[in-house]
Amino acid sequence: MFGTYWFLSLLCLSSVAAAISGLLVVRRYAPHELLRLNHEVSGYMFSTIGTLYSVILGLVVVGSLNTFDQARLTVAQEANSLHDIYHLAHGLPPEQKISLRKLCLEYAQIVITNEWPLMNSGKHSEKAHDIVSELWNEVVDFKPTQTRDADLHAALLTEVNTLGDNRETRLNAISRSGDAIIWAVLVFGGAVLVLFTYLFSAQKFIVQLLTTTLITLILALNLAIVAMYGYPFSGDVHVSSLPFENFRAKHLSEITTEPK
Q: pLDDT (tens digit, 9 = 90+) per residue, 7-56?
């Protein structure tokens, strides 16, 4: 819910409405002439606090975008490792080849249908974890008898290890520990900046109303970006399972026609 378009739209609208309401209350009890007396002091403080907050907000926004891009790259690398394991299995004895390829397709299926929906709520699939363990067992139990088999075994171990590492990296991206503190700082800082706009008074009220509205909207939109891209596997903007879907669609028909 947190990263959905309708929730973020509601958040922006409610923020603007609250900011306007606060401005109306301040202007009712603090006349234009009184506010003008403090413009110089308020201006210095607004500039200092605004600069500090913009640096913090900018770093968090960039960090969120980088998190999203890194998550997308991790998913692609994980699917690529699965793809490599599938093709390297061609050099194994027939029974082990079929078993390993079936595990690859089963893993892709579980990730698509079971794990991806679970990640939206910060969880993962135990079934997918079990399949990765089976992949490890299949590869580790293979006993090479020739130099060619030894090279193949080493390549399979490397790819399974890469698959497991990227899976752990992907699952770590759904962790939200410590986010409450970051959000508290961002929301409090944004509220302080909006409150400072109340200390200025334009000759025409509509000018100040527009200024407060635009500042609030810009702050809310930046927070929306953090909410949408800082959690790459949840919300309406999320990393898709397309690499796994492409892998499964490409190789599903092959496994059914695999020679015994």
A: 888 888 999 999 999 988 888 887 767 677 666 777 778 888 888 999 99
* Radius of gyration, alpha carbons of the chain: 27
231: left (phi over 0), alpha (psi -120 to 50) or beta: beta
Q: What is the pLDDT of residues 88-106, one digit of tens each?
A: 999 888 888 999 999 999 9
Confirm if 152 and 141 have CB atoms less than 8 A apart: no
What CA–CA distance (Å, rounded) separates 18 from 26? 12
Distance from C-alpha of 133 to C-alpha of 116, rounded to nearest angstrom: 19
DSSP 194-251: HHHHTT---SSHHHHHHHHHHHHHHHHHHHHHHHHHSSTTSSSS---SHHHHHHHHHH
Torsion of CA 145, 148, 152, 158, to 10 degrees: 100
Instruction: Give ∠ CA 102-108-114 in degrees, rounded to 5.
Output: 120
Which residue bears the tokens 């139990």?
141
The candidate with the shortest Cα–Cα distance to 218, out of 239, 238, 193, 235, is 193
Place of tokens 């390549």: 155
The whole model's pTM is what?
A: 0.83
Q: What are phi and psi of 132, to 5 degrees?
A: -60, -40
Q: What is the pLDDT of residues 180-202, one digit of tens each?
A: 888 999 999 999 999 888 887 77
Contact between 142 and 156 under an 8 Å Cβ cutoff? The reply is yes
- HSE-CB at 253 with a 13 A cutoff on CA atoms is 3
Instruction: Let me know if 226 is exposed, middle or buried by CB neighbors in 10 A (0-12, 13-18, 19+).
Output: buried
Q: Which amino acid is at 75?
A: V
